[in-house]
Design brief:
Blueprint: H1 3-16, H2 23-33, H3 40-61, H4 63-78, H5 86-107, H6 109-115, H7 119-139, H8 151-163, H9 171-181, H10 186-213, H11 218-246, H12 253-272
C-alpha cells in the first residue's frame, strides 16, 4: 500500500465510518475501482486500525457525554445504585449492547476477512443496509428518548451492530435502524450508535494491533497506517458533526438510495470485469 492510497482510503474511512453508507464497503470498492492489488490481510488490518482514527474522532466529539456517563456509572457503583441516574443507565446499556458484536467478531473473524475480498458479498450487504434503513424509517414512531432504553432493547441494537462486522453492512446505519425500529428518535438513536461504537472499535483495533506486530513488513507498513489514522480522525470528526445536524430534520432515505446505487455499481463493475 502506498502513501497516496493511504491518504485516499483515510479520507474514505473518515467520511463513511459514521455516515450510514458502510465504510467497509467503500474500503473494498475504492481499491476495486482503481484496480489496486492490495493483499486481503493487509487491507483488513488497514481497515481495522484506521478505525482507531475515527474512534478518536467520536471520543473527542462526545467527550462531555462520556465524562458524564463514566462519572455516573462510577458513582452508581459506589452508592450501590447502578441504575439510579439516566447517564448511568445509558452507560450500562452501552456495555450490554457491545456484547453481541464482540462475540460475533471473535467467532466470525476468519469469515469476515474472506468477505473483505469479495465485491459481490459487499454489494449484497449494501442492499441489506438500505433495506434496514428504509424499513426502520417507515415503521418508527420516533417518539422515545434514548435514556428510556431497556436491556433487551440494548441487546437488539447490539445484534444490529454485530451484523456490521461484514463489509457492506453500515454499522451506524444498522444500529440507528435498530433504535428507530424500537421507536427511539433519530438523534437519540444516532447518539447511542456512536457511543456504543467506542468499546467495539477499541477492542477490534487492539486485536488488530496484535496481528500488526506479527507482520514481517511492520516498519514499512507503519507510516501508511499513521497517515490513514490521522486523516480518518479529522475527516471523521466533521462527518459526525454534519450527520448529527442532518438527522435533526432529515430521514435516512437518502442514504438508503445511495447504498442501492453503490451496490448496483459494484455488481456492474464485477460483471464487466
Amino acid at each position: 500500500m502506498t502513501i497516496i492510497q493511504a491518504i485516499i482510503l483515510g479520507i474514505v474511512q473518515g467520511l463513511t465510518e459514521f455516515l450510514p453508507i458502510s465504510s467497509s464497503a467503500h474500503l473494498v470498492l475504492v481499491p476495486y475501482i482503481f484496480e489496486w492489488d492490495l493483499a486481503s490481510a493487509e487491507a483488513f488490518l488497514f481497515d481495522v486500525l484506521v478505525q482507531l482514527g475515527t474512534l478518536a474522532a467520536v471520543i473527542v466529539y462526545f467527550w462531555k457525554d462520556l465524562i458524564a456517563i463514566i462519572k455516573s456509572v462510577l458513582s452508581g457503583i459506589k452508592a450501590k445504585q447502578p441504575l439510579k441516574e439516566s447517564d448511568s443507565i445509558l452507560g450500562w446499556m452501552i456495555i450490554l449492547a457491545t456484547i453481541p458484536a464482540g462475540l460475533g467478531g471473535i467467532l466470525l473473524k476468519d469469515y469476515v476477512e474472506t468477505a473483505f475480498s469479495s465485491p459481490v458479498i459487499t454489494a449484497v450487504m449494501l442492499f441489506i443496509t438500505a433495506a434496514l434503513m428504509t424499513i426502520s424509517e417507515w415503521v418508527s414512531k420516533k417518539t422515545r428518548e434514548i435514556e428510556t432504553i431497556k436491556p433487551k432493547e440494548a441487546l437488539l441494537i447490539g445484534f444490529f451492530q454485530m451484523l456490521a462486522i461484514f463489509p457492506g453492512i453500515s454499522r451506524s446505519g444498522a444500529t440507528i435502524s435498530g433504535g428507530l425500529i424500537q421507536n427511539f428518535d433519530r438523534k437519540g438513536s444516532a447518539r447511542f450508535s456512536f457511543l456504543m461504537s467506542i468499546p467495539i472499535m477499541l477492542a477490534a483495533g487492539l486485536l488488530a494491533l496484535v496481528d500488526l506486530i506479527k507482520m514481517s513488513s511492520l516498519f514499512s507498513f507503519l507510516p501508511v497506517l499513521v497517515i490513514g489514522f490521522l486523516i480518518a480522525g479529522v475527516v471523521g470528526y466533521f462527518s459526525i458533526a454534519w450527520l448529527m445536524r442532518f438527522l435533526k430534520k432529515s430521514s435516512l432515505y437518502v442514504f438508503s438510495l445511495y447504498c442501492v446505487l453503490v451496490s448496483i455499481l459494484i455488481l456492474i463493475l464485477h460483471n464487466v470485469r
